[in-house]
Amino acid sequence: MSAASLKQFQEQQAILQRQYAARALKDADQMEMLLDNFEQGQPHVLVELRHLAHRLAGGSGVFGLGQLTQPALDLEHSIDNCEEETQIRAKTTALADHIRQAAMNKS
């Protein structure tokens, strides 16, 4: 691979990482909204919350945000294991905080 091709690849990769970080930020907001709905007696939103965590666990490493993988897995497992609401809240908040920190580092 030529130096020019490598540079073009790296630039494209950086663009994709920034786009993923922006999407993850939206996911963080969505997760917090879902958590509020869950706490207001809508347990069905846990399915969507789990889906977001699962997607983040799988995609974050691919897009250079590997630090999100474990917190996303923690939340996903918490939901799968029907942990208490306080545990789900803590893990959702932790993941949202990790997302915001990672996104700031990518901008």
From TrEMBL:
In its keyword annotation, does this UniProt entry include Cytoplasm? no
Domain HPt: from-to ranges: 13-107
Q: What UniProt keywords are attached to this protein's entry?
A: Phosphoprotein, Two-component regulatory system
Matches recorded under SUPFAM superfamilies? Histidine-containing phosphotransfer domain, HPT domain (SSF47226)
Respond yes or no to whether keyword NAD is given for this record: no
Q: Sites of the modification Phosphohistidine?
A: H54
Q: What InterPro entries does the record point to?
A: HPT_dom_sf, Sig_transdc_His_kin_Hpt_dom
Q: What is the protein's given name?
A: HPt domain-containing protein
